[in-house]
Specification:
The chain is an alpha/beta fold and about 270 residues long. The chain has helices at about 5-15, 25-40, 45-50, 55-65, 75-90, 110-120, 135-145, 160-165, 175-180, 210-225, 260-265; strands spanning about 100-105, 130-135, 165-170, 170-175, 180-185, 200, 225-235, 250, 255-260. It contains eleven helices and nine strands. It has a seven-stranded mixed beta sheet with strand order 5-2-1-6-7-9-8. The model has no long low-confidence stretch (mean pLDDT about 95). It binds S-adenosylmethionine.
Amino acid sequence: MDDVTYARLQNQLQRKLGLDLTAYKPQQMRRRIGTFIQREAGGDVGAFLARLQNDHALLAATRDMLTINVTDFFRDGPQWDILARDVLPAVSRGKRGLSIWSAGCSRGQEALSLAIALDHAGVLLSSRILATDFDREVLAKAKAGGPYSQEEMRGVPAADRAKYFQETRAGMTAARRLLGQIRFAEVNLLRDPFEKNFDLIACRNVMIYFENHVKSELISRFRQALAPDGLLFIGSTEALLGDDLAGFQRVGGNFYRRVSEARREVA
Ligand SMILES: C[S@@+](CC[C@H](N)C(=O)[O-])C[C@H]1O[C@@H](n2cnc3c(N)ncnc32)[C@H](O)[C@@H]1O
């Protein structure tokens, strides 16, 4: 796809979907959009844009393709072991409950995994979890606690399935015990203000799609949204490097602790 065509698509998709595609890595985005238009309209960009005007199913499919909602319960298993073994005991020491944010929560699996981990640590009912995404459709499923198919449930151990989910005809639905501690909200990470004072922010497999300067700005805003000593939990293919590490200290796995500038200099 040439530059002019891509610019035209960016512009149209922004108008139709309110998505600022310039923040996302162009190569990946171009490839995704190109493959999609090939499949949906035989590669004819004009025909695709014309259909987009009043084909709601195509519009929804386009949004899904662009926002990349892939997720899983306890995604990257070993990180959840580190969370349970090291992170939660350390971060909850001396506190009654924790304030946690799942930023880019997709269909809710990450927030529910966090709630289960908090329950195992005995702090769920005194804690609060904020789960946000800018995609209304996935957020609606997250809010409803499912239903999740057997395939979607594969990361949940049998004992947790029995304890925290109910079987319905449509699939498994999360129990009130988990959902009651989670507040769901629509937040665009590139535009909306952030709440503050989180003990843990999980933003995983979201920043990989952003241009470097957008990612750096986001990391700095996450730092400001963390409580002193709060932790940022990122995806397994992501890392804080160079200037992005300023004001953070890696504490193991994909966890980075907010540190004051003074402590960072001593460390
Ligand atoms: C690949 S999923 C990751 C879900 C989950 N964090 C995980 O690791 O399994 C990325 C999510 O980020 C959301 N997202 C992408 N750009 C966003 C933005 N600018 N603001 C808020 N959410 C965004 C997408 O809608 C999608 O649900």
